[in-house]
Inverse folding.
């Protein structure tokens, strides 16, 4: 009898546990005001009670609700407003958001004469597609080469609880060049891939001659949801001090200074100041500086300061909805072995096979690798030496080794994966070098994973979550700044130059310095990242 009572109590506690509402689909995604909107998902609750829906931040009247079930809501779209994000609010919890677009106010391609001299979009084909899918944009005025131009898709984040309840315009996310994003750019035709983080909404082309009028593009068939929230803005400073010992004749020192990396979760990097003008502003994610004709027994310095926005990222995936394409360019690019990621090594391949067995789903395979690392990787915060192979053979790893081992095992299993390097910011606003990873799911985009924090190996003063083991697979906090995603591969400026690299730094790049000509000897000291300000929205 006592066991039965305990069992009943457990059932009651489980039934009382609040679940976060989850929207899986809207039907229709594009419609007219006054039409019936069907919201499908889970954890809405069997009764409406005090729960409600918001469209573009505004709740409809009570008479608008037609049906409310735990997995389905039918509601009449009010005769007001415009396109906006749909959310379900229940029990004090807020669902993810999907975009409902008002057909009457959707932007349309320009027809007839146009007074502007900027790009003009005539058609987008197809008008709907998944993350990573290829689309063709036709029109005119695009320019014969891309140069400083780009294609931008809508992007959106969940507003802060303190934000006013009102309609907000989504932000934008640019197509990423390093992820096979641009396949063709010509005066009349552009072929691009839908970037990670894109949502249904406006698509536009931005060029130095002007921006196109936006057209609507529907990001469809996602096998899950990705939510960006809790924005933090950081101001940071860093630099390098150079002491020249021996120099004669013409000489040059090139410095590749990392910039905060761009991603769907890390955005709007703004240069605040720097001590000298660059030779090349943005060279593969770095700023290239040229110090010419240095004199012996002198010192030189370089300092810079940036502001960058970082969002926490949360994902939910329906594994059964994933359709991975082994022929996709992301698979071709990010499953290859490299010096940092020895995915072709027989020891790595054998271990990957042992971990995943006969599993074919890429998301489930990645989770199995992550869980193996947490259980068997012996991940510690203290710095060790070596990379993925040393972590495997020594049966212990630090954050750097754990990230590389995850990527090696994932690539060996056919899952596109990249290491990410940067800094963690603790509650004292001190930055520590840190490494994590991302893996790619077709139709969904990059999914974050942090094996070190998942194993509880955090630097002192860092606010680690209680549910870190489960949370750091697929989710990421906003207490970090990334400086490189994958190894940044740079080319020497002079084949006779003498290069210097920096292992295990806050950026993974193959070049940091190159001495050319009569610069015989010098020393360099790259400072750590200093957090000069934190702003929470």
């Amino acid at each position: 009898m006592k066991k039965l009572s305990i069992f009943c109590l457990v059932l009651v506690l489980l039934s009382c546990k609040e679940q976060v509402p989850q929207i899986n689909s809207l039907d229709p995604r594009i419609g007219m005001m006054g039409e019936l909107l069907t919201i499908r998902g889970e954890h809405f609750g069997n009764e409406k009670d005090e729960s409600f829906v918001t469209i573009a931040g505004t709740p409809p009247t009570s008479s608008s609700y037609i049906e409310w079930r735990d997995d389905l809501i039918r509601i009449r779209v009010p005769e007001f407003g415009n396109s906006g994000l749909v959310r379900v609010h229940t029990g004090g919890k807020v669902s993810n958001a999907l975009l409902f677009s008002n057909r009457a106010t959707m932007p349309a391609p320009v027809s007839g004469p146009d007074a502007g001299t900027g790009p003009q979009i005539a058609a987008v084909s197809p008008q709907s597609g998944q993350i990573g899918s290829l689309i063709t944009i036709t029109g005119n005025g695009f320019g014969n080469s891309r140069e400083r131009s780009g294609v931008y898709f809508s992007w959106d984040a969940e507003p802060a609880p303190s934000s006013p309840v009102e309609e907000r315009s989504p932000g934008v996310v640019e197509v990423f060049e390093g992820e096979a994003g641009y396949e063709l750019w010509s005066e009349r035709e552009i072929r691009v891939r839908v970037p990670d983080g894109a949502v249904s909404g406006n698509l536009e082309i931005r060029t130095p001659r002007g921006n196109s009028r936006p057209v609507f593009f529907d990001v469809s068939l996602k096998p899950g949801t990705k939510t960006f929230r809790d924005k933090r803005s950081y101001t940071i400073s860093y630099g390098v001090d150079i002491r020249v010992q021996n120099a004669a004749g013409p000489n040059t020192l090139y410095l590749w200074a990392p910039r905060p990396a761009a991603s769907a979760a890390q955005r709007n990097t703004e240069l605040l100041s720097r001590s000298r003008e660059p030779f090349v502003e943005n060279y593969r994610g770095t700023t290239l500086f040229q110090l010419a004709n240095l004199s012996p027994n002198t010192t030189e310095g370089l300092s810079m300061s940036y502001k960058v926005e970082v969002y926490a990222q949360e994902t939910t995936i329906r594994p059964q909805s994933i359709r991975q394409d082994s022929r996709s360019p992301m698979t071709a690019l990010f499953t290859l072995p490299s010096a940092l990621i020895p995915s072709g090594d027989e020891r790595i391949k054998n271990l990957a096979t042992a971990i995943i067995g006969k599993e074919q789903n890429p998301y489930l395979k990645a989770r199995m690798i992550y869980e193996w690392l947490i259980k068997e990787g012996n991940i510690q915060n203290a710095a060790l030496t070596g990379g993925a192979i040393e972590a495997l053979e020594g049966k212990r790893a630090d954050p750097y080794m754990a990230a590389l081992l995850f990527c090696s095992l994932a690539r060996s299993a056919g899952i596109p994966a990249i290491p990410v390097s940067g800094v963690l910011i603790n509650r004292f606003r001190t930055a520590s070098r840190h490494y994590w990873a991302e893996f790619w799911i077709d139709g969904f985009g990059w999914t974050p994973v942090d094996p070190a924090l998942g194993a509880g190996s955090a630097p002192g003063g860092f606010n680690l979550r209680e549910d870190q083991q489960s949370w750091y697979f697929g989710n990421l906090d906003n207490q970090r700044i990334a400086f490189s995603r994958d190894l940044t591969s740079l080319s020497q400026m002079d084949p006779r130059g003498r290069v210097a690299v920096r292992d295990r730094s806050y950026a993974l790049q193959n070049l940091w310095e190159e001495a050319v000509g009569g610069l015989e000897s010098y020393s360099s000291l790259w400072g750590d990242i200093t957090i000069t300000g934190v702003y929470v929205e």
